[in-house]
């Protein structure tokens, strides 16, 4: 009952891998339209900056495969590269385009939840690549080479003429 002129409302937002489900309950029609337009605009802005997911491909051992690319915009920040699929990798490396990037640290998170931390401090020029990073041998023996996510901490070169750089993670099977 609305005795004071206030409309009680409930907005439920459910995120899933298939999309966003939005439920409105007892809300004025004009408010529903405003909130829906806002959520659509927010979804497009999030999608524009998200990492492109690349499904891991089956390939012969000893071949490099592109695992994901992030666009680096800030001077100091970190990003996640999420892997799709169940492929195992024994080595990783980075390639950089458009502007130089300093890769400071990297965490490799495996499917079983184990985390390996790497203190890298690589200075990679535009068009260059890092040295090969071999995954730790104890992981190779226990079979936890299935990577779920790689988090990288980086710093862009503030003197570079471009505002962004692209960092691509490559994995060797």
- The total count of helices amounts to 2
Which class best fits the helix and strand makeup? alpha+beta
Q: CATH class of the largest domain, please?
A: Mainly Beta
Return Rg in Å.
21 Å
Largest sheet: 5 strands, antiparallel
Unreliably modeled segments: 1-10, 14-18, 45-50
Give helix and strand order, one letter per element, not per position.
EEHEEEEEEEHEE
Amount of helix: 10-25%
What is the number of domains? Answer: 2
Whole-number average pLDDT?
Answer: 74
Estimated share of beta-strand residues: over 45%
The CATH architecture designation of the largest domain is Sandwich
Spatial order of strands in the largest sheet? 3-4-11-6-9
In brief, what are we looking at here?
The chain has two helices and eleven strands; from the N terminus they run ββαβββββββαββ. It is an alpha+beta fold and 173 residues long.
What features would you describe in this structure?
The protein is α+β, with helices and mostly antiparallel strands and 173 residues long. The protein folds into 2 domains: 10-49; 52-172, Jelly Rolls (Sandwich). It has helices spanning 29-49, 137-142; strands at 10-16, 19-25, 52-53, 64-72, 76-82, 91-97, 101-110, 115-124, 133-134, 147-156, 165-172. The model is unreliable at 1-10, 14-18 and 45-50 (pLDDT under 50). The strands form 3 sheets. It has a 5-stranded antiparallel sheet with strand order 3-4-11-6-9, with no helix packed on it. 16% of the residues lie in helices and 46% in strands.
């Amino acid at each position: 009952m609305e005795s004071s002129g206030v409309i009680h409302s409930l907005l439920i937002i459910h995120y899933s891998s298939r999309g966003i489900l939005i439920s409105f309950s007892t809300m004025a029609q004009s408010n529903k339209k405003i909130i829906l337009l806002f959520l659509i605009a927010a979804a497009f802005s999030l999608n524009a900056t998200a990492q492109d997911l690349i499904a891991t491909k089956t390939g012969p051992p000893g071949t490099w495969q592109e695992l994901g690319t992030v666009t680096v915009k800030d001077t100091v920040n970190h990003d996640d590269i999420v892997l799709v699929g169940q492929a195992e990798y024994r080595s990783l490396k980075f390639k950089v385009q458009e502007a130089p990037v300093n890769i400071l640290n990297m965490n490799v998170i495996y499917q079983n939840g184990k985390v390996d931390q790497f203190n890298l401090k690589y200075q990679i020029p535009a068009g260059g690549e890092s040295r090969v990073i071999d995954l730790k041998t104890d992981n190779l023996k226990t079979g936890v080479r299935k990577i779920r996510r790689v988090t990288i901490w980086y710093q862009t070169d503030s003197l570079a003429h471009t505002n962004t750089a692209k960092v691509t993670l490559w994995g060797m099977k």
